Protein: Sigma-54-dependent Fis family transcriptional regulator
Amino acid sequence: MSDQGSKILIIDDELETVQSIVSYLKKEGFEVTVAYDRLEAARLLKRTSYDIIFLDWVLEREIGLEVLNALRNEFPTLDIVVLSEGASLEMAVQAATHGAYDIIKKVRDDKGNRWLVPPRLPIVIHNLLARRQEHELVTQQMDEKYHMIGESEAMRRLREEIRLVGPSDYTVLICGESGTGKELVAHNIHRHSPRRDAPFVPVNCSALTPTLLESELFGIDKHVATQVDQRKGKFELAHKGTLFLDEIGDLSYEAQAKLLRVLEDKTVTRVGGQREIQVDVRVIAATNRDMDAMIRDSSFREDLRYRLSYRITCPPLREHNEDIRPIAEHLLAQACRELHKKPITLDAEALEALTSFSWPGNVRQLKNVLQWATVRVDGTITADLLRRNEDLRSSLTPTQNYMGMTLKEAVRVFERDLISRVLNETTSNREAAQRLGMDEGNFSKKLKDLQLR
Structure:
């Protein structure tokens, strides 16, 4: 039953009542420690990570409920199981309401002389360990999903910013161009915070009209209209967790004022309601717009901007193009898994083509291009294939660095690029030759020389 090496802490000031439990757990392979009060338990918890906590409901100097609340406040991710000689339904409800996973009744033998292992103990431990394994699997999947790729100086600085601000409760404003990964950064801040096991609730502000935004953020009261159901808003759904407001620069001035009030008062009032509802939410916002310019032209509130106290900027891909290779390899592996295809690689010229463009759509655009290419090949993606991509042809600006090349090499690179573009924009060699002012025979020879056909 045990997960070898799992650590269990028992908080009980009457050791004889839990001695059978301690012996049983040690026999099952658990590492067991006993603390006699909350203070000793807190000292141990600061030094050691325990998998399960067993807490006696009646301690000599403290009430179990008070200890439970104190532990949940200081160590919110703990799995706590209550032990009690007089366990009742009322006590179970009270314990569960305050964050206990379960309650187990201590039992004696028939004569009342000896404390026994509670029959439910193995079941509760099994369920807790299964839940923990499931949580670890989900955590691993989330780590893979939100892994930030790249070892450039720009990416190292970004990860360091996340590491520094994550454990705080500061509101954060993430700035950057479209496609630079602002939501990815928001997820990583959340996952580095004490709120990591609570909800992460995203809201796309640009997709909501001013009338819909208020009900979406603050909820709807049951009295607002006969045909409308009561529902919680995003702030309530994110209680104890993180609310991510994407494209906050698209909020109307009126909506900004209401958001500012929530950030200041920590309360929301549902549409049509009167009651103020307390919310404990960390807000992370993102924008691809110039906030300072918006403040100057009075389209964004300066006081709200300063409520978003910590600012992080996501670098555009063109400023860390040394990361294009690992990012591209990751995106290709992801696309192959989704399409159930064998691994696909980039040849040297294709990789050079990817790194020689200034990506205005950033990583999102790179992902789209690689997905486009993946469905068209098995094995290797070539530069010729990439040059046929509409996105590359219409949206990307070549930034080929000719320094270090001979004149002959530079002319060849330029000719390949220009002729590839013309070929993509025309329907025949004859039309392409005419566009370039060449006769068809010489054009065919040039294609062969440049290995374009």
About this structure: The radius of gyration is 30 Å.
